[in-house]
């Protein structure tokens, strides 16, 4: 029997900082309106012709591999989570394998949006626990900025999202009291369209639509979110899946040393913090600086929390996410 243990962490965000005041120059919004609803002050956007989802993932991965104290050729498998791949296909997993010069290991792409990193972590954890692999590279990376409606029409969504990448190396741990204790995954597809990007997609003959119709009023090429409905579901599912993970390991909220939630909305994190009776030093948020980076948000936040000394050996760390699909999940980790 083995556990998987996070042995290396890294993240990368573009240098280009986009403040709320910057957004107010291109759409009818303001700093107070954005902060009140989301808690976001600024986010990072890739400059045109600069980084891609893959290159950001590669930069984060290099840091994680170095910190894990292993060579790139020690990586047995790659799991890449994103909703914003460089290409329609193939996915970025194989591009990372190529760009890092890793031997011909398997590469898997995960399309679970905001829950993507939890799902990817769970897959890697099970591969290691089965004995199949020893070191797995898990990446969450997103490039939202090139696909947002940066006008007043799209402001309710476009002010939320940012670009960035985070990575973790999971390695075999023979002490089963350490590492990833359990992961818990769920979905509820009946609400799929409440947070979605409908086109391009094969359900809508996207090449024909773009070339022949070119309808400037077609909003299906931009993200849609039923904000209030998503918020109401998120606070319920976050709470449920955190408690599910704690109970599975005979733990209680009082045992949590650090909760790292998906950075969807600061108000959601504050609601969960209050519900579980956690102090400010027990919950890590950085949405104020980076916005919602979807599959990248948890690994970026987890890396920052670790870098800042907020996570120490022996700590109980809980990761939790909720997002499009709807999908949600949690991971219980003994650091």
TrEMBL record:
| Full protein name | Beta-ketoacyl-[acyl-carrier-protein] synthase III
Is Cytoplasm among this UniProt entry's keywords? yes
Beta-ketoacyl-[acyl-carrier-protein] synthase III C-terminal domain: residues covered? 246-335
Q: Where is this region: ACP-binding?
A: 263-267
Q: Which gene encodes it?
A: fabH
Give the PANTHER family listed for this entry. Answer: 3-OXOACYL-[ACYL-CARRIER-PROTEIN] SYNTHASE 3, BETA-KETOACYL-[ACYL-CARRIER-PROTEIN] SYNTHASE III
Please name the pathway.
Answer: Lipid metabolism; fatty acid biosynthesis
GO biological process, alphabetically ordered: fatty acid biosynthetic process; secondary metabolite biosynthetic process
Which UniProt keywords are listed?
A: Acyltransferase, Cytoplasm, Fatty acid biosynthesis, Fatty acid metabolism, Lipid biosynthesis, Lipid metabolism, Multifunctional enzyme, Transferase
Task: Describe the function of this protein.
Answer: Catalyzes the condensation reaction of fatty acid synthesis by the addition to an acyl acceptor of two carbons from malonyl-ACP. Catalyzes the first condensation reaction which initiates fatty acid synthesis and may therefore play a role in governing the total rate of fatty acid production. Possesses both acetoacetyl-ACP synthase and acetyl transacylase activities. Its substrate specificity determines the biosynthesis of branched-chain and/or straight-chain of fatty acids.
Check the record and name the InterPro entries matching this protein: ACP_syn_III_C, ACP_syn_III_N, FabH, Thiolase-like
Active site feature: 114, 262, 292
* Residue span(s) of domain Beta-ketoacyl-[acyl-carrier-protein] synthase III N-terminal: 108-189
- Write down the CDD domains for this protein, in alphabetical order: KAS_III
Question: How does the record comment on the protein's domains?
Answer: The last Arg residue of the ACP-binding site is essential for the weak association between ACP/AcpP and FabH.
Q: Which organism is it from?
A: Zobellia amurskyensis
What this protein catalyses is: malonyl-[ACP] + acetyl-CoA + H(+) = 3-oxobutanoyl-[ACP] + CO2 + CoA
The enzyme's first-digit EC class, named in words, is transferase
Tell me one GO molecular function of this protein: 3-oxoacyl-[acyl-carrier-protein] synthase activity
The places in or outside the cell where this protein is found are: Cytoplasm
| Quaternary structure and interacting proteins, as annotated | Homodimer.
- The source's domain of life comes to Bacteria
Family indicated by similarity: Belongs to the thiolase-like superfamily. FabH family.
**What Enzyme Commission number does this protein have?**
2.3.1.180
Q: Which GO terms describe its cellular component?
A: cytoplasm
């Amino acid at each position: 029997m083995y556990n998987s243990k996070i042995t290396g962490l890294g993240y990368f965000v573009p240098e280009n900082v986009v403040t709320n005041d910057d957004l107010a120059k291109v759409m009818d919004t303001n700093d107070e309106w954005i902060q009140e609803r989301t808690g976001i002050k600024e986010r990072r956007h890739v400059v045109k012709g600069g980084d891609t989802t893959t290159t950001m993932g590669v930069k984060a991965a290099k840091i994680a591999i170095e910190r894990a104290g292993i060579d790139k050729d020690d990586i047995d498998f790659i799991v890449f989570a994103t909703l914003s791949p460089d290409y329609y296909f193939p996915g970025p997993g194989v591009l990372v394998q190529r760009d890092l010069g890793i031997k011909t290991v398997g590469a898997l792409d995960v399309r679970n949006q905001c829950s993507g990193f939890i799902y990817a972590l769970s897959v890697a954890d099970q591969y290691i626990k089965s004995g199949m692999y020893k070191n797995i590279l898990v990446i969450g990376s997103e490039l939202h900025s090139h696909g947002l409606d940066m006008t007043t029409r799209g402001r309710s969504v476009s002010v939320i999202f940012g670009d960035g990448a985070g990575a973790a190396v999971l390695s075999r741990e023979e002490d089963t009291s350490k590492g990833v204790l359990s992961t818990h995954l769920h979905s509820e597809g009946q609400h799929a369209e409440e947070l979605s990007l409908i086109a391009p997609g094969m359900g809508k003959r996207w090449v024909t639509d773009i070339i022949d119709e070119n309808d400037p009023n077609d909003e299906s090429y931009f993200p849609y979110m039923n904000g209030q409905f998503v918020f109401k579901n998120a606070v319920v599912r976050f709470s449920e899946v955190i408690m599910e993970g704690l109970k599975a390991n005979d733990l209680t909220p009082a045992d949590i040393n650090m909760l790292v939630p998906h950075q969807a909305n600061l108000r959601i994190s504050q609601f969960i913090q209050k519900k579980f009776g956690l102090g400010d030093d027990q919950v890590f948020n950085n949405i104020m600086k980076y916005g919602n980076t979807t599959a990248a948000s948890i690994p970026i936040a987890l890396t920052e929390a670790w870098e800042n000394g907020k996570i120490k050996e022996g700590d109980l760390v809980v990761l939790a996410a909720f997002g499009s699909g709807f999908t949600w999940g949690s991971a219980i980790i003994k650091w």
